[in-house]
């Protein structure tokens, strides 16, 4: 059964954060808060954990469009091909924030994602998510959780999330109520911004 860990976004407790990071390093799967909906995630370097996340989502890993949660833009060069100045400036304006940016993937992607030409990058405006990635030292591969009966109504109450997922994951973080609007998805892989999904993040004045 999963552990239910309370972490306050304003001032994340280091000991609790460390428990979650240790779990991720050992190949655990967690549910954690972002600046949009709660996410299901694992360490990008753990093959078995990646398989588990895909299984929980009911998809094949090579077909999955997971997001990479990063702490800041310094992780980008590890997973994304070199981007031009205009694109970089746009990312700096928008992030941290409620956006997923689709960018051209580099050759350094983990083997599970080698066939992917693009990757979705997220830097959430949420201290818990960013602190986890910072302490872990590499991105968390992530997917949103939602209720099967209403695909667009994302689950927002951590206690209800725990009830539903306690036998499927290792840790559920209670970081307060989540949002029920997903991130705005913008494709930058061609160099020209293209709105794929309008979510929480506003595109006004972004480009």
Automatic annotation (TrEMBL):
Domain YrdC-like residues, every copy: 14-201
One Pfam family in the UniProt entry: Sua5_yciO_yrdC
Keywords, ordered alphabetically: Nucleotidyltransferase, Transferase
Superkingdom of origin: Bacteria
N-terminal signal peptide: none
Record's protein name: L-threonylcarbamoyladenylate synthase
Record PANTHER family: DHBP SYNTHASE RIBB-LIKE ALPHA/BETA DOMAIN-CONTAINING PROTEIN (PTHR42828), THREONYLCARBAMOYL-AMP SYNTHASE (PTHR42828:SF3)
Record EC number: 2.7.7.87
Organism the protein comes from: Capnocytophaga gingivalis
InterPro entries given in the database record: DHBP_synth_RibB-like_a/b_dom (IPR017945), Sua5-like_dom (IPR006070), SUA5_domain (IPR052532)
GO terms assigned for molecular function: L-threonylcarbamoyladenylate synthase
């Amino acid at each position: 059964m999963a552990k239910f860990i309370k972490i306050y976004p304003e001032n994340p407790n280091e000991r609790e954060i460390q428990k979650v990071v240790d779990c991720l390093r050992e190949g655990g799967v967690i549910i954690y808060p972002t600046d949009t909906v709660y996410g299901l995630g694992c360490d990008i370097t753990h093959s078995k954990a990646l398989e588990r996340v895909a299984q929980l989502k009911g998809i094949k890993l090579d077909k999955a469009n997971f997001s990479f949660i990063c702490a800041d833009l310094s992780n980008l060069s590890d997973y994304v091909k070199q981007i031009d100045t205009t694109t970089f400036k746009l990312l700096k304006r928008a992030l941290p924030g409620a956006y997923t940016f689709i960018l051209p993937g580099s050759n350094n992607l983990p083997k599970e994602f080698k066939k992917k030409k693009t990757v979705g990058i997220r830097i959430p405006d949420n201290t818990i998510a960013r602190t986890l990635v910072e302490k872990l030292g590499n991105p968390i591969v992530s997917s949103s959780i939602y209720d099967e009966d209403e695909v667009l109504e994302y689950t927002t109450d951590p206690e209800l999330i725990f009830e539903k997922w306690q036998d499927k994951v290792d840790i559920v973080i209670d970081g307060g109520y989540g949002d029920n609007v997903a991130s705005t998805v913008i494709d930058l892989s061609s160099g020209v911004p293209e709105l794929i999904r309008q979510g929480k993040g506003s595109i006004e004045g972004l480009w």
